[in-house]
Write a structure and sequence with these properties.
Rna Polymerase Sigma Factor, Chain: A; globular
Length: about 350
């Protein structure tokens, strides 16, 4: 059985960090306060017992630590006022901090808010994705480096430069105005896509991580609710649903990956396949030329709707890869088209 502290951190880390960034605007402070709360739990819980609501205890402790730090800074008057209100909540209301962001309600989720605010147009796209993967998804620097096909040292420097730019440019972590959401979408979709890929074919420990893949599916759903008429948003959600639907059949009893043509299709999740196909239909309905996520979803849908591997419409798969190679040329796409 997992340790209560490990369970609480795994389940609440994103919400606590995102909430602290939302009300303080300070990335490092948010991370430090969560770490401080974890250290206090390690010291107190063995002596005092595990709280009835471990997640709320961590949230309250992290917020109170932020309050202490800001109080010492003295110049953070407005942030201090907001955090004072947060810190007075009892454990049952912990985490329901007053929303200092006038546009925050539309995003429904602190994690999604953090995704959009991290993807600031002043940052290079690779920096946006890498930094968000580090904080939102909790990936290690090594995992992110593997996702970008660079060395761990290179990725460490890239993360450092991105944080330095945030500090020097005075970038605040706030939800953008509604009319500016579209310009942030490309970075958000790239983050969600890479988080899913890390879970779908994990690099850390050479195993899949269903928790990361499921988180990416959830985030894709939230973005789709926010931007329902964006065909690439719907295309990405369709792609992730169709891929994740096969999770139960992808690993055999020995823990080895099973090629798709050998998978037991009765173990694919039919409700998830149906949801993916519905999202793809929505994307098609926009009438826009397909982008890379939608094209990959078209390929996944062709496989998902074939009753058996031999019945796959390979001509349709090749045609989709041909267009994908034009839209997003890469050696991987070219190889997949050749194999298909």
């Amino acid at each position: 059985m997992a340790h209560p502290l490990a369970e609480a951190v795994a389940g609440e880390r994103l919400r606590i960090v995102a909430g602290l960034i939302r009300v303080t605007g300070d990335w490092d402070l948010a991370e430090d306060c969560l770490q401080d709360a974890v250290e206090r739990a390690l010291a107190r819980w063995p002596r005092d017992g595990v709280p009835d609501n471990a997640a709320a205890w961590l949230t309250t402790t992290a917020h109170r630590r932020a309050l202490d730090v800001l109080r010492r800074r003295r110049t953070e008057t407005e942030k201090l006022r907001v955090l004072t209100a947060v810190a007075t909540f009892d454990e049952h209301s912990a985490g329901n901090a007053p929303d200092a962001d006038p546009h925050g309600e539309a995003y429904r989720d602190d994690v999604l808010r953090l995704l959009f605010t991290c993807c600031h147009p002043a940052l290079p796209l690779t920096g946006q994705v890498a930094l968000t993967l580090k904080t939102v998804a909790g990936l290690s620097t090594r995992e992110i480096a593997r996702a970008f096909l660079v060395s761990e040292a290179t990725m460490g420097q890239r993360l450092l430069r991105t944080r330095t730019k945030i500090a020097n440019a005075g970038i605040t972590f706030r939800v953008p105005d509604p009319h500016r959401v579209t310009e942030r979408t490309a970075g958000v979709l790239a983050v969600v896509y890479l988080v899913f890929n890390e879970g779908y074919a994990g690099t850390e420990g050479d195993g899949t991580r269903d928790d990361l893949a499921a988180e990416a599916v959830r985030l894709a759903g939230l973005v789709a609710e926010l931007l329902p008429q964006d065909d690439e948003v719907q295309g990405l959600r369709a792609l992730l649903l169709l891929q994740h639907a096969r999770r139960a059949a992808r690993i055999d009893a020995a823990g080895d990956l099973v090629p798709m043509e050998e998978q037991d299709r009765l173990r694919w999740d039919p409700s998830m396949v149906a949801a993916g196909l519905a999202c793809l239909a929505t994307a098609r309905g926009t009438g826009r030329p397909p982008g890379p996520y939608r094209l990959q979803a078209e390929i996944a849908a062709t496989h998902a709707t074939a009753p058996e591997a031999a019945a796959t419409d390979w001509a349709r798969v090749v045609a989709a890869y041909h267009v994908l190679l034009e839209v997003q040329p890469s050696p991987v796409v070219a190889l997949n088209r050749a194999v298909a």
